Amino acid sequence: RRFLYLPCLQPNIPLGFAIPFGIRYCSVRTERYANRESLKETERNTKEMTTATTSPPLASALRHGQESVGSTGGRPADVLDIRNLSKRYGKGDKAVQANDDVSLTIRAGEVLCLLGHNGAGKSTLVNQVVGLTLPNAGTITLAGIDAVANAAQARTLASVQAQANVPITGLTPRKAIEMVGRIRGMSKADAKARTEELLTALDLMQWADKVSEKASGGVARLTAFAMAAVAPSALVVLDEPTNDVDPVRRRLLWQEIRRIAERGAAILVVTHNVHEAEQVVDYVVLLDEGKVVTRGTPAEMVANNEGNTLEDVYINLVGQENGDA
Question: What distances in angstroms separate CA 135 from CA 85, 120, 124, one per listed residue?
Answer without folding.
Answer: 7, 16, 9
